[in-house]
Amino acid sequence: SIMRQTVGLLACVASASAFLSGPAAVPGTTRFNSAINARAGLGLRVQRPAVALRKNAAASLNMQTATGVDTAALAKAANEARGLAMDSIAAAKSGHLGLPLGCAEIGAVLYADFMQYNAKDPQWLNRDRFVLSGGHGSMFLYSWLHMSGYDLPMSEVKNFRQHHSATPGHPEFPNSEHNTPGIEATTGPLGQGIVNAAGIACAQKMEQAQFNTKDHTVFDSVVISLCGDGCLQEGISHEGASFAAHEGLDNLIIVYDSNDVTLDKMAEYTQSEDTAARYEAYGWEVVTLDGHDIATVKSTLDKFRASKNGKPKLMIAKTIIGKGIDEVAGTNAAHGEAGVAYVAENKKRLGLTEPWQVTPETYKMFEGVQAKNEGVYSKWKETYAAWKGANADKAALLEKFQKKEVMTAEEMFAKIPEISKDKGVATRESGSTIINYISDCVPQFLSGSADLHGSNKNYIKTGGNFGRGFDKTYTGKNFYFGIREHSMGAIMNGIAFHGLYRPSGATFLVFVDYMRATIRVAALAELPTTYILTHDSIGVGEDGPTHQPVETVTSLRTFPNLDVMRPADAEETVGAYVHSATRKDGPTALILTRQNVAENSQVPKEVRRNGTLKGGYILHKEKGDLKLIIMAAGSEVEHAMVAAKELGDGVRVVSMPCMDVYNKQSAAYKEEVLPKACTKRVAMEAGVGAYWYQYVGLDGKVISVERFGFSAPGNIVFKELGMTADNLIKECKAYM
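Request: output the structure for the sequence above.
Response:
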């Protein structure tokens, strides 16, 4: 019965705890290892029907795997991978031993037998992707990339965590700082990697649906992510798991390194849920097994690949953290560097007599693996050539996606007519028209929303909806993420990591804090993601201070490499969208209004669009001697224009939709816009004003909102907090 199983499990845990806390619990002894096995529930797995365990008898050591490599050779490679991790972490005096040692057999199966890849062409379109969600265990990844033949020489393995090395402390997606082959995602913030993998799975489903034909299959890859208890404790894991199951991502395989350990304590100290039951409830296929049993790991992964049942896959691999260093194995001390003191002794026990030892036999084995992989690769190239010959239009589009080609800004501007000549509309409303032109100009541009399409106004009308069931297909360009901002950000990053598509996602600006951690990774990894953030200020009005983002724009501007664009009207919104759709070295946040804003149609649309691409520009030029510069962004620009008319001929208005882009302009251009000779400067924005002081100087004036708002109609909130043309005129007169 369930009661008996529960009592039995508790008894095993209590017994294990007693063993480990008692004087006889010496690492490496039979009593110690029995306690580890008891705590892991090894003896109970067969009794737990909810887990649907498929535990096979241990395979003999000479069993042949699919690539013709026997399990003894894989076990040897696993120990050598352990040795590389031990030596590199010891040399760096920094790093995490637990995962690389505990998951070594899993790595051997992935890289020597299961995964579809070509180490000589790391960007092969149809490769399987591997994401190390537990990025702290990066030596796991570097060891296997080196041994399997990627361009990661032993010198880089030895240079772990050192300046300018290709082996940084956590894996970093190829960017301007690092170009380590075989890294499919920047990981480290726990939980994000497994949801990045869900995003990659989305992109794989999309490429399969968009490019495969009944005669030719050019895409059939899967994505695998390795995580631990930390990833599954983070709330993002729930959001991503729910989304993945709901949309039928059966090409997603998560390997859960279930070692019963977290950093501070044994995992039982902070968690007690049945993870298998949790994922089965989402709709995943779940298997629990011994993560050190090479044959079972391999056979399970093969079944996962073959299973097209609409269910993502979770392999709960019961492992011993830090396996190979008996003094700490199976304890929370194994997570980090505590085992370094025992490296030399335990390497000898593993038969590793040299520093960073990889035997010729292991290198030879991986040469055989590479030869077989190249055979698969060559057959795929033949299929691709035949597919290309029969599908010229699809092939041309795919090659364009692969090269990340997009129209120039000028070409896009030519295809987007003037949005609003006289009538003032909200910039989110302008965006609803503009995004459809962007989709036509950039066919790889995708959209999505956290249950707010109707409010964010970011729906691509001809794009269809992504996913399974209802009116959805895997070619759909509109993602319904549900109320899951955090996972929306990570899924977007995963789609961008995949490389063929350019994702965007939308929510209310005030809720962007739910996804800040994923925006940070996008900026760090230089991903071309777009965030469409509406309801941008105290203008939200009646919903009150919980929904009025006074501090949020300023907080987003603190991110390096995130272009925060707050356009003033429809034509600036065109410029902002085009900037986001053409940018290739980082993300863009589009900050859009709920309320209507005046259209500055007295200024040609070309001036406003191109000025937006420069981040800041002269919207209204003084007619006499320059006496005052008024700067503003977004909805406050209209007040600046009214004030300039009232204050006389010597007033200039500078619209500043994006500070980061403006700051990158030439010194000559910045002097043209904001001449040093004019020190009388005023800035206005309906939010925290700290960033404006870089332009107005200590003697200038910033009219901003340095408090939370309140519930009232938007026009009243604006008036009470000083965000009106009348108040701007009064403040400018007093200042001058």
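Residues 71 and 143 are 19 Å apart (CA to CA).
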